[in-house]
Amino acid sequence: MRGKLSQVYSDCNKETIDGMLLIIVDKVVEEMEKGGIQQMLGSTVVMPSQDFSEDLWRTVWEVSNMVLEDMEKVRKNEKMKQFLQSEEVKEMCRFAGEVGIRGDLLRELRFKWAKEKMEENDFYKSLDRLRDEKEAKGEKIFNEQAVVAEDNPRVASLPKRKGKIKYKIYGLDLSDPKWAEAADKIHEREEMVWPQEPKAISGRCKLVMEKIVSLKMEDDPSQLLAEWIELLQPSRVDWINFLNRLEQQNPDMHLKVAELVLSEESFQKSITDYTKLIDAYARDNRLEDAERILKKMVETGIMPDILTSTVLVNMYSKAGNVARAKEAFESLRSYGFQPDIKVYNSMIMAYINAGHSTSAELLMSQMGTRDFKPSEEIYLALLWHYSHRGEAAGAGRIANIMQFEGFHPTIESCSLLVEAYGQAGDTDQARTNFDNMIKLGHRPDDKCTASMIAAYEKKNLLDEALNLLTQLEKDGFEPGIDTYTVLVDWLGKLQLVAEAEQLLGKIAELGEVPPLKVHLSLCDMYSRTGFEKKALQALGVLEAKKEELGPSEFERTIKALIAGGFLQDARRIHGLMESKGFAASEQLKVSLMASQSSSLRRPTKR
């Protein structure tokens, strides 16, 4: 105001201007006391005054409005500072920083969010103010009506309603009781979708929980668990939180507690809980425990669904129980569900491990009708099965299917084909596949070469085998333990003791421990050639590893001992064979009976 007066009255000195300001201030204070200042501020109409001119009053009101606007700006700035420091704005800024927003853009967004929060707060305050004004006005009207009612008292009553109240929304009658049931169901589903937060655990309840977590596998948690239930009164979300913690900190105790929890009503068990526990036991190869949980689930009236059946197929397939795996597999179809590729693979592997190659191939063809492609591991497993059984036709068929499906021949598949034809006695076809493997760029490894040498052994083609080894050694091949094992067995059958012992020296140079087949070959060779000390030494190794011997190994050993005249040792090994549950063949029984009736002596030591 001083600036405006100095601009108009430029000739007046400072004392005169101060006197003018004092008069103006006195008059404005007088108007404020009358209440006129509040009506005139912010108004475009300026009321004339007897003391001041119209222009002077207009200037006073303009300056007053400017002051009020500045005061309002200062108030808003102070309020803005409060919202800039609010938790909601800080949280949004932290999130913006995490997604990569920085610098001026982040500052601009922060002020924008603070302004929006301030406007929202002002809006709700204005609503509260309007509500208070309306309540005050309504109360005033009610009091006036009450005064009138006291002056003119009268008795009035509402008419009685007949029938039920009907609520209709868009023509839909919501007064039907079924809508109340629907609302309850919706509420229950909402609790499942949006679960409650677990209860805070503290005090004695926390101590009991720590004791349960620290228990050992052999401890019984039932007593501590009962105490924990009594203290916390847990709901399902509390149980889930507790089991998750137990699984992280004590996995062994987790399964035991999870099984006990199934009997608690507050846990609100479902089929998913049973399935998870069965799957956990199956992964640990605890088949009996998994079957016990399955039996308990059925006894409670809960039948296996598709997830449970899938877990059962995988579990029984892994355990080698083909009958139960097939039962679970068929149950999937009975429910109307089609097995996925993992279930197919598990079932096929179960058939292969049980020796049911025909069923495995049939299931693989069913996969093809559903546009499922068996993995290369499945084909190789079936090829391995045929090769070890010497079924060359089946191995060749699987190899052709693999090429048709786009699987290129690998050194593993080629080696299995060589072994299959070798086991079948088809030396020419085995050599053809061996040469094809080399043409494809695969260098034969020790195992593949051993399979080829074994094929020659069946036909006793020693010259061809030695020529092959010589050719391979020129190309950089070095025989390993598998090749030497086949050669020792072959030379042992030919009773070439010196040559076989020379190969034993090469096995020792490799630093490898001779496998069981080498000791079997040595026992056979030394027994038939009459080297008693070495034969009994090799026999001692076989007796020490009797758990690894099968019926064919037992029979070969017994026949060699009988042929060498070691009759007592032969009878002892036959007793071990029977104790293992293996039945002797008719030929072996005849040999044993003939040895008992004969009076052969042991040969002299050499």
Key traits:
606 residues; mainly alpha; two-stranded antiparallel sheet
Question: How is this structure best described in words?
Answer:
With 606 residues, the protein is an all-alpha fold. 73% of the residues lie in helices and 1% in strands. A hairpin with a 2-residue loop joins strand 1 (168-169) and strand 2 (172-173). It is elongated, with a radius of gyration of 48 Å. Residues 41-46 and 599-606 have low confidence and may be disordered.
Write the layout of secondary structure elements.
Elements: H1 2-8, H2 14-34, H3 36-40, H4 54-84, H5 87-98, H6 103-151, E1 168-169, E2 172-173, H7 177-193, H8 203-213, H9 222-232, H10 236-249, H11 251-261, H12 271-283, H13 287-299, H14 306-319, H15 322-334, H16 341-353, H17 357-369, H18 376-389, H19 392-404, H20 411-424, H21 427-439, H22 446-459, H23 462-474, H24 481-493, H25 497-510, H26 516-529, H27 532-544, H28 551-564, H29 567-579, H30 586-597
Helix pairs in contact: 4-6, 5-6, 8-9, 10-11, 12-13, 12-14, 14-15, 14-16, 15-16, 16-17, 16-18, 18-19, 18-20, 19-20, 20-21, 20-22, 21-22, 22-23, 22-24, 24-25, 24-26, 26-27, 26-28, 28-29, 28-30
Strand coverage percent: under 5%
* Average pLDDT level: 83
- Based on CA atoms alone, the radius of gyration comes out at 48 Å
Residues in helix, %: over 70%
In short:
The chain is an all-alpha fold and 606 residues long. It contains 30 helices and 2 strands.
